[in-house]
Amino acid sequence: MVESKRERDAEEEDVTVASKKQRKNEDTEETYSPKKETTTKALETEISAEAGERKVIIILEDARLEAVKTSKGSYELLNCDDHLHLHKKLNRKPIDSRPDITHQMLLMLMDSPLNKKGYLQVYIRTKMNVLIEVSPHCRIPRTYKRFAGLFVQLLHKMKIKAADGNATLLKVIKNPITRHLPVNCRIFGTTVTGTLVDTHDFTAALPDKPVVFVFGAIAHGHIEPNYCDQHLSFSEYPLSGAVAVSRLLNGFERKWGIL
């Protein structure tokens, strides 16, 4: 009799515990808000969609980034100031070796509010047909000497990673450039002989979709890549690459209200 009573008490205790757990689960389910999760996911999707639609892709074509071995045994970027003897040896014009132009344009691009907002992507294709992808988080060195050292390292190692993590800041990727561009996006070349447009009016008329602009990272002349749909000019006067880039970015920043 005593054992039977103990068994009944144990069963009642198990039922009571199970009942409490069930009520606890029900209370938890009542406090759970699927609407909140849905709202958060919708917001994340909206932000992602906006970032995907608003994208300006800049390609710096014909950049003069070439690593050469000096008489001291070190590697440097071939440039018109430090390597006159190498130009004579290679039978090249010193004026064509201007890696500082790429440096100036990258500083303008990566420091822009448009890039900090996350709406910019930059690619570089060198005279030697090396294609480079630049991460939006890459901070370009302020001085030319450090810039040159960074790109010599890139051309040898094929990628540059952040010192404080695994993020890749610069990397060499496969050609052609068109395989890395969004499908059916419009591609505009920029040249002094192109159709003259006002950057503010032109960017305002563009839809909020990915668009590509190609700039020549060269000292003189103009480029007309065969993958461009149309060629534009941003001034009736010849502009340096950095100034032309600045005009275009300012148009998009004004269009999207980026201060």
Q: TL;DR of this structure?
A:
The protein is of the alpha/beta class and 259 residues long. The chain has 8 helices and 10 strands.
Descriptive overview:
With 259 residues, the chain is α/β, with parallel strands linked by helices. The chain is built from eight helices and ten strands. An eight-stranded mixed beta sheet has the order 6-7-5-4-1-9-8-10.
Q: Helix and strand layout, with pairings?
A:
Elements (H helix, E strand, L loop, with lengths): L1 H30 L2 H20 L2 E8 L3 E3 L5 E3 L6 H7 L8 H12 L2 H4 L3 E7 L4 E4 L9 H14 L1 E3 L6 E6 L12 E11 L2 H7 L5 E6 L13 E4 L7 H15 L4
Parallel strand pairs: 1-4, 1-9, 8-9, 8-10
Antiparallel strand pairs: 2-3, 4-5, 5-7, 6-7
Helix pairs in contact: 4-8, 7-8
